[in-house]
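Subject: design request, 300 residues
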């Protein structure tokens, strides 16, 4: 079978059957397309372990990060596993493919005091009633108050928000739906936005829709706009050179555990499929506790 046709069928499977996000499907497609560029022929059955090793070696020579190499290896393992299950190949050439383990880096977390001051500042800015300021305050409060992903926030419709119960229904990875709680400050900010700002933004749309959070022209806000907002407001209060899009999510999870929340409960709130993914925040909490001990204890 042609390699390119198999890649297309695999990506269709990821999107239509496994219901992975468009960003994940794009990443798989990009990695598999890169592999296709080193093949002598567009033939799936000609790929063996040596070709895969050569492909990763070339990526290493380009200076690709270990995390990138690990992601590419995961992409080809998933692809060839699917191809074997569908009888497109006999043996899976990726089974013995070895890649460097991802470097263990702890997520960037802002202090609870820093985020409190940040959100207080945003509330003050929004007090004059500017629609964009009201929206930004509501989004930041909800991201921190719920720990949801930026992509999940962008996908929320008005009907997904229950201000009375202080919950929001989100669609997470793999099209898995969950209901996430949020607190009083987030409820106040969202209520103010929905009543005082969203109608103004909604009126600007060429095709009005049900999205909860809208851009300046009235369309559903996109992840890039939210990433930019998060990076801008968090940059002054975190020590990292670059603030990632999940910085508020990381901070929310860590502060929940610092406050005594059960690890399983945090897993449910964040929508992690594996408890092991959530456990990274216990390491963050432990490091923060150790740092505080060393600063405070006279015999540390």
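Subject: RE: design request

Done. Sequence follows.
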């Amino acid at each position: 079978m042609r390699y390119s046709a198999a890649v297309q069928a695999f990506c269709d499977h990821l999107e239509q059957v496994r219901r992975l996000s468009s960003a994940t499907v794009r990443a798989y497609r990009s990695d598999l397309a890169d592999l296709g560029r080193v093949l002598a022929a567009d033939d799936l059955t000609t790929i063996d372990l040596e070709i895969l090793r050569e492909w990763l070696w070339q990526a290493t020579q380009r200076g690709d990060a270990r995390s990138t190499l690990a992601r590419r290896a995961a992409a080809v393992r998933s692809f060839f596993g699917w191809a074997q299950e569908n009888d497109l190949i006999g043996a899976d050439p990726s089974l013995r493919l070895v890649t460097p383990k991802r470097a263990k880096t702890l997520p960037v977390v802002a202090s609870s005091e820093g985020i409190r001051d940040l959100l207080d500042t945003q509330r003050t800015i929004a007090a004059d009633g500017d629609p964009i300021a009201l929206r930004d305050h509501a989004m930041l409060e909800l991201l921190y108050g719920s720990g949801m992903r930026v992509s999940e926030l962008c996908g929320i419709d008005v009907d997904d928000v229950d201000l009375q119960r202080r919950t929001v229904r989100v669609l997470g990875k793999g099209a898995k739906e969950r209901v996430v709680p949020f607190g009083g400050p987030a409820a106040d900010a969202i209520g103010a936005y929905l009543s005082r700002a969203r109608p103004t933004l909604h009126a600007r749309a060429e095709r009005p829709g049900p999205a909860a959070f809208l851009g300046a022209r009235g369309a559903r806000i996109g992840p890039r706009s939210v990433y930019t907002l998060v990076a801008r407001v968090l940059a002054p209060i975190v020590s990292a050179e670059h603030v990632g899009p999940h910085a508020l999510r990381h901070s929310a999870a860590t502060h929940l555990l610092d406050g005594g929340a059960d690890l399983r409960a945090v897993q449910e709130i964040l929508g992690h499929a594996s408890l092991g993914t959530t456990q990274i925040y216990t390491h963050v909490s432990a490091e923060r506790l150790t740092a505080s001990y060393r600063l405070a204890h006279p015999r540390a």
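The mean pLDDT is 88.
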